[in-house]
Amino acid sequence: MINAIEIKELSKDYKDFSLSNISFTLPTGYIMGFVGQNGAGKTTTIRLILNMISRNSGSIKIFGMDNILEEIKIKQDIGAVFDDIFFVDTWKVSDVEKAVKSFYDNWDSTLYNKYINSFKLPADRKVRDLSRGMKMKLMLAVAMSHDAKLLILDEPTSGLDPVARDELLEILSKYILSGEKSILFSTHITSDLERIADYITLISKGRIFYTGTKDDLLESFHIVKGGPKDLTEPLREKIIGLVENKTGFSGLLPASEIKYLSSEIVAETPSIDEILVYISKGESSYE
Amino acid sequence: MRIIIKNSSDKPIYEQIKEQIKAAILGDELCEGDILPSIRELARDLKISVITTTRAYADLEQEGFITIIQGKGCYVLSKNSELVREQLIRKIEDSFSSAVSTGKIANLTRKELTELFKFILEENQYD
Q1: In degrees rounded to 5, what are phi and psi of residue A70?
Q2: C-alpha distances in angstroms, A115 versus A31, A139, A168, A207, A261?
Q3: Are residues B66 and B99 both part of a single domain?
Q4: What is the model's pTM?
Q5: Would residue B6 count as lying in a domain?
């Protein structure tokens, strides 16, 4: 099957930041969580995918087509949601459809109205008077009403309360039900992804730290904890983001290095959050 | 069919799904020919990843509990299949072995242990 997104050795240089050698693949029909700290390069990558900024090198294929050469064709099938609303704030909810529908060949008014109703969005309220959760749902309604085969969501959950976040996850898991639609979902609130995401791409300081299935990610690392004497030299070298204090140490250990463990040391399955934290600790100590 | 995912469990989610479907089949709650929700429906209903439900179903298929027919659905197989029987026998063997090692710890003689087993058979009216 054709991949929804295929990125190879993508690089982009700014004065004070560079995205280097980004490669990942999102197979059709799945949800990928795109995770990293603020400033890790998530939004830059998404802008490159959408050809909003130009790249220095590398290639991006969407549905098997080059994202620049076939941009117009591809964009008919992409729905994008950003963390901030981009509709004019004096528009009413009902005006939004009029403004955007002519851009899409496959715009489906019935579907749009169905979403507006089920999301309980008041048709005559102005965009600026909507709550954060409502704004996100309005953008989602627009993104999903032209039969987009790929949804790209940049930090859709930031600033949302737990109820609205749960609703979003429900909408997304319904969206991929047919197996023909895919979602790239960037966030730093990883608890949202812990259950729903099939794939995780972890980016840190402009580089890919991990890309693959979520289950493999959680199985490839252990959180290890032990007393001060349990920390042997070979172990010290292998641990990512080692934290030491008087009562002991903790850190992230690749599962392949589990042979270094004495029975005194506790090894636990990490959460995506913990992996993120230890990676960033590991990097600051190299500097 | 009832499936409950515990977030606090040490067991991975695919394992929890697998065990509950297995228990439903062995406990006659699901019968041969029953249709299970599709891999994607189950992922939506439980709000979990498609890869997780795929893994649970793939394991169940391999162990002979269900069959997945591409484009049609997932069906429950007979629990009397050779594969399922073999696994049940292995489970019985494991339980016996564990009883024997507990017997050793308790210093029970071979005779006492056999008596105990006979007693339990009587009690459960196992013919």
Answers
A1: -110, 30
A2: 21, 11, 12, 37, 53
A3: no
A4: 0.81
A5: no
What residue type is A145 in one-letter code? Answer: S
Q: Is A22 exposed, middle or buried (0-12, 13-18, 19+ CB in 10 A)?
A: buried
CATH, residue B52: 1.10.10.10
Question: Are both B69 and B20 inside the same structural domain?
Answer: yes
Q: ipTM score here?
A: 0.70
Residues of B in contact with A162 (CB under 8 A): none
Q: A36, A276 in Cβ contact below 8 A?
A: yes
Q: Do B21 and B71 lie in a common domain?
A: yes
Q: Is residue B4 part of a domain?
A: no
Would residue B46 count as lying in a domain? Answer: yes
CB within 8 Å: A176 and B50:
yes
A147-184 pLDDT, tens digit per residue, is: 899 999 998 887 777 888 888 888 888 899 988 999 99
Q: Note whether B13 contacts A169, CB cutoff 8 Å.
A: no
In a domain? residue B107:
yes
Shared domain for B43 and B65, answered yes or no, is: yes
Q: Which residues of A touch B68 (CB under 8 A)?
A: none
On whether any CB of chain B is under 8 Å from the CB of A162, the answer is no
Cβ contact B100:B113 at 8 Å: yes
Full domain range(s) for residue B87 = 81-123
SS (H, E, C) B44-99: HHHCCCHHHHHHHHHHHHHCCCEEEECCCEEEECCCCCHHHHHHHHHHHHHHHHHH
